[in-house]
Amino acid sequence: MWLEAPDIAAIAQPGQFITVRCEGLALRRPFSIHQVVIASEAKQSQVAILFKVVGKGTLWLSQHQGGDKVDILGPVGNGFSVEPSSRNLLLVAGGIGIAPLVFLAQSASPQHSITLIYGASTARELYPFSSLPLTLNPSPSKGEGKGEGEKRSNLLSFPDSVRFIPVTEDGSMGKKGMVTDILPDFLGWADQVYACGPIDMYKAMLACQSEPFASCHSEGAER
Fold first, then answer.
1. What confidence tens digit (pLDDT) does each residue in 57-105 have?
2. Contacts (Cβ under 8 Å, ≥6 apart) of 62
3. What percent of the chain has pLDDT above 90?
4. Using alpha carbons only, what angle is made at residue 197 by residues 190 and 30, rounded to the nearest 5 degrees?
5. Where does the FAD-binding FR-type domain lie (predicted)?
6. Is residue 37 within a helix (H) or strand (E), and if so which, with residue range?
7. In whole angstroms, what separates CA 159 from the centre of its chain?
8. 216 membership: H or E segment, kind and range
9. Helix (H, G, I), strand (E, B) or coil at 93
């Protein structure tokens, strides 16, 4: 969902979120900032949120149409931190946890090489597949050109340095299994690790590491 919010768009950083007042609910609902578009006319700048209908708040939000007004506050939170010396960034997403990592990938500088590992139960639950670069060969390397298994689309604009690796539990797209099944293959390559997903994903990430992450930033998808 795109929201016209020029003041938020102007200062939003990857990893931050907004809160939305949903009708009939006492507490505001937090949503990660998914994308930002800075328009030529500042007042038309927008932010996007990505959500799955799982309760009253998201159901109410999903029923809005273009032109409707929504009460939002933000940006909130410190956001992700990228060290100046880091070159290889590993992004690990589970389910709707893809939301803030898309913003991070789009905001990365040309000096960064990014691998985005994204897991879901089935292909249907993955972020719209055609909108992301795809690598079917999940192995990290440096200076590798685009392979036969890669696709491109204009639905989202990503730096060429972003490698997208889908993982589904039923094998309906990409590698079969969990994101943590291939995570160890990339830990030695990554200068920093960024993760967003369900609590069980974080527990599995901790269990699969043989030594502490050099630098790991996480955001909860289950607020």
1. 999 999 999 999 999 999 999 999 999 899 999 999 999 999 999 999 9
2. 51, 53
3. 59
4. 120
5. 1-82
6. strand 29-37
7. 14
8. strand 216-220
9. strand
Same domain as 122, residue 62: no
Beta strands in 44-168 (DSSP E): 46-49, 72-76, 88-94, 113-120, 162-168
pTM: 0.81
Beta partners for 17? 32, 76
Which domain, by its residues, includes 174?
88-220
Same domain flag for 26 and 136 = no
pLDDT tens digit sequence for 112-160: 999 999 999 998 888 764 444 444 333 444 333 333 333 333 345 566 6
List the CATH number of the domain containing 116: 3.40.50.80
Cβ-based neighbour number of residue 161 at 10 Å: 18
Cα dihedral value 11, 12, 13, 16, nearest 10? 140
Give the helix/strand (H/E) hosting 203: helix 199-208
Choosing from 53, 76, 99, the residue where a domain stops is 76
Structural domain ending residue among the three candidates 25, 52, 76: 76
Of 138, 218, 210, nearest to 174 by C-alpha is 138
Backbone CA torsion sign across 41, 44, 49, 52: negative
Q: Let me know whether 142 and 208 are in one domain.
A: yes
The span from the CA of 77 to the CA of 138, in Å, is 32
Domain contains 83: no
- Sheet holding 72-76: strands in order across? 2-4, 46-49, 29-37, 17-20, 72-76
